[in-house]
Amino acid sequence: MADLQEPLVRPKRKKVLVDYLVKFRWILVIFVVLPISALIYFNIYLGDVWSAMKSEKRRQKEHDDNVQKVVKRLKQRNPKKDGLVCTARKPWIAVGMRNVDYKRARHFEVDLSAFRNILEIDRERMVAKVEPLVNMGQITRATCPMNLALAVVAELDDLTVGGLINGYGIEGSSHLYGLFSDTVVAVEVVLADGRVVRATKDNEYSDLFYGIPWSQGTLGFLVSAEIKLIPIKEYMRLTYTPVKGSLKEIAQGYCDSFAPRDGDPAKVPDFVEGMVYTENEGVMMTGVYASKEEAKKKGNKINCVGWWFKPWFYQHAQTALKKGEFVEYIPTREYYHRHTRCLYWEGKLILPFGDQFWFRFLLGWLMPPKVSLLKATQGESIRNYYHDNHVIQDMLVPLYKVGDALEFVHKEMEVYPLWLCPHRLYKLPVKTMVYPEPGFEHHHRQGDTSHAQMFTDVGVYYAPGAVLRGEEFNGALAVHRLEQWLIENHSYQPQYAVSELNEKDFWRMFDASHYEHCRQKYGAVGTFMSVYYKSKKGRKTEKEVQEAEAAILEPAYADEA
């Protein structure tokens, strides 16, 4: 513990009006956001039920008609007069914390709101064909009764297929299957010129197939995807194991929980995640699918964590620190969405008493508030407050560097709990925006194979310790330092988060070669904004839009000449 650098000492911060607006924001959340969220969720549920009642043939027909509407709309655009193309979705609807500032400037909108249907569940091919606005709650509601699931099911109900493919998605099974985009079999994309293509890893559009992940929708409009299904069982047998010691020792305990040093595949669980509660305490959870018969055997404990009055999952897991290792059985679908009700642990900041029994029992059924509504009801001052005094970041780091990442976060941000989730990063036929460390396969490190390097998502979500103590904290500077650490350690920052990267550093973190190849080949230059421009923090003025268009159009025309 002597080697662990203590958090930076900071002076006290003087409170201003926005501090009190944030402190008492729970009033607005309880009386406005939660009731409206419940109505929206119910309306979405009715829409999902109505969609499921339609025949596959009818759903496919509606899909084809909607695709043609997108094609027609794209062809209406005048490149000389209209702005760059983007969806018509409102800026605050995105689940991520990054505000969609690029929509504040001139742009040409295309409405994709109709693409929210499950088109087909193919049991023979073990593939689900879905539209981009299908969310995780919708897909598990359809597949779990069939004892099927997507190979990677992101935890929060509201996360959509389109966002998880165009951006980033992970779950406790990613140590087996990779990121969400790695489980995609085919994508249907409307290109800038209105062509509709189906891209797979081995057809003529294979370069587009590998270019879509992490591109943030800047190569074309994703209108459907075929995603790998796996067989599942009714329950998850979950083991909670406390780990105590230094952050490096916690990191090693986390590695050992799913990547056995002897390489025995029989010891690898179906699911794994870790939560680090302090600089010397964490709990590792490993899950294995179990049948209904096994779960209901005498002596086994079944915990239906999805009930509205149940303790929030991260607090339930924390009890292992006091009572030691224990095992329980959780219904599989409820396990998939275990973090939804409390939005990991962000719910504690939104509703400080939301974890209390009286609130869970009386109003817990209204949880969670929709993130989009939380964003829609915050003014500019609250928005800036969260950017400066709050952290929502994911650090995708090589497994062997997790201990270093934990120590960095402790020193710079002192945010707890921290979330740990491993994922494979595959060595692909082309060098995509994210890629393993060159030569990783020669080091034979724990968790690595010849075809994939094991990474870990270190999830940093909460108010920093300095903010909780009333001290000054520079959120922009802290994120900048985090990004520089990631660049120096061959690590990545998912683009849903607020970023302080300039363009040079953005392309130091990510590889541009294949992405730019796809931009040029498929006509995205001059039609869709670049991924950096789309991720860039801050408002985009009309002048910036024009300069960005000119900067990427000139090289394209030079190549044609």
TrEMBL record:
Keyword ATP-binding: no
Topology class, membrane: Single-pass membrane protein
GO terms under cellular component: cytoplasm; membrane
Family annotation (PROSITE patterns): FAD_PCMH
Entry annotated with the keyword Methyltransferase: no
An individual GO BP term: steroid metabolic process
Transmembrane regions listed in the UniProt entry: 26-50
Positions of the FAD-binding PCMH-type domain: 53-232
GO function terms (MF aspect): Delta24-sterol reductase activity; FAD binding
Alphabetic keyword roster: Membrane, Oxidoreductase, Transmembrane, Transmembrane helix
InterPro entries reported for this sequence: Diminuto-like, FAD-bd_PCMH, FAD-bd_PCMH-like_sf, FAD-bd_PCMH_sub2, Oxid_FAD_bind_N
Location in or out of the cell: Membrane
EC number annotated for this UniProt entry: 1.3.1.72
Enzyme type, top EC level: oxidoreductase
Name of the protein this chain belongs to: Delta(24)-sterol reductase
